[in-house]
């Protein structure tokens, strides 16, 4: 018997145990590594190559289950990552641009467009309250030119499920900081990822606080000192 015949018998020995495809194992491992989007994208391709290789080996390789699981899990997680990424970009764009859009709309007289972007008590504010807010805002800082997120000022989360984000308001008469109180989780109704403003406050150290809605709570201790000074000035 020749050496070639002996090798052929060894390779086709029905008692020889098939080895598991490395590509199939790699596909499965990449798929379950869900915290890494790159790995989940690679997983389906490794799984496909593994299935092709297993088919060509004619039973000399196993691992179809790993390969199929890698393809399905990897594809599902990749789709989920795409949805989360799109949602995050949409959310970031909303937080970045909405304050300017709503403030300029309200100042131009579209009270419903301004009020309609809020959640909670602000949606029940009357037209007189909204006009009063914008009358004072315009008297102080003039026509609004731009409202941009304050650079180097990250948003601060509060224990009650809110997010405080600072902005710089540029008006014809001056520049001032504005803080928007975003609702993330509404514990009362069980809503999550609401991402709608519930209040905003103009933060000017030289003037009394200006808030909308008027009864919104302040997150700044220095506002109390303004109130104390006002009461002292009113005393005879």
Commentary on this structure:
- The chain is α+β, with helices and mostly antiparallel strands.
- Helix content is about 50%, strand content about 20%.
- The protein is built from seven helices and eight strands, in the order αβααβαααββββββα.
- It has helices at about 5-10, 20-30, 35-55, 65-105, 110-115, 125-140, 220-235, and strands spanning about 20, 60, 145-150, 155-160, 160-170, 175-185, 190-205, 210.
- Strands 3, 4, 5, 6, 7 and 8 form a six-stranded antiparallel beta sheet that branches. The chain has a two-stranded parallel ribbon with strand order 1-2.
- β5 and β6 form a beta hairpin.
- The chain is rod-shaped and about 90 Å long.
- It starts with a helix and ends with a helix.
Topology:
Layout: H1 3-11, E1 19-20, H2 22-32, H3 37-57, E2 61-62, H4 64-107, H5 111-115, H6 127-141, E3 144-149, E4 156-158, E5 162-171, E6 174-186, E7 191-203, E8 210-212, H7 222-234
Parallel strand pairs: 1-2
Antiparallel strand pairs: 3-5, 4-5, 5-6, 6-7, 7-8
Helix pairs in contact: 2-3, 2-4, 3-4
Gist of the model:
The chain has 236 residues and is of the alpha+beta class. Helix content is 50%, strand content 22%.
Task: Specify the structural class.
Answer: alpha+beta
CATH class of the largest domain: Alpha Beta
Mean pLDDT: 84
Tell me the number of helical segments per DSSP (H or I, 4 or more residues long): 7
Give the distance, in angstroms, between the N- and C-terminal Cα atoms: 121 Å
């Amino acid at each position: 018997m020749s050496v070639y015949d002996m090798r052929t018998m060894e390779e086709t020995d029905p008692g020889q145990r098939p080895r598991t495809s490395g590509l199939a194992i790699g596909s499965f491992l990449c798929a379950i590594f869900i915290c890494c989007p790159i790995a989940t994208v690679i997983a389906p391709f490794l799984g496909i190559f593994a299935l092709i290789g297993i088919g060509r080996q004619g039973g000399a390789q196993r691992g179809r289950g790993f390969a199929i699981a890698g393809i399905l899990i990897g594809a599902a997680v990749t789709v989920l990552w795409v949805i989360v990424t799109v949602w995050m970009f949409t959310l970031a764009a909303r937080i970045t641009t909405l304050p300017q859009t709503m403030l300029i709309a309200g100042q131009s007289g579209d009270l419903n467009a301004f009020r309609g972007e809020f959640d909670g008590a602000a949606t029940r504010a009357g037209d007189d309250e909204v006009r009063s807010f914008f009358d004072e805002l315009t008297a102080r800082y003039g026509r609004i030119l731009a409202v941009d997120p304050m650079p180097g000022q990250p948003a601060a989360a509060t224990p009650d499920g809110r997010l405080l984000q600072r902005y710089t308001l540029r008006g014809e008469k001056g520049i001032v900081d504005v803080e928007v109180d975003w609702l993330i989780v509404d514990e009362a109704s069980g809503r999550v990822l609401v991402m709608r403003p519930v209040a905003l406050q103009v933060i000017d150290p030289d003037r009394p606080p200006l808030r909308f809605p008027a009864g919104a709570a302040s997150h700044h201790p220095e506002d109390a000192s303004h109130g104390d000074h006002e009461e002292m000035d009113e005393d005879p």
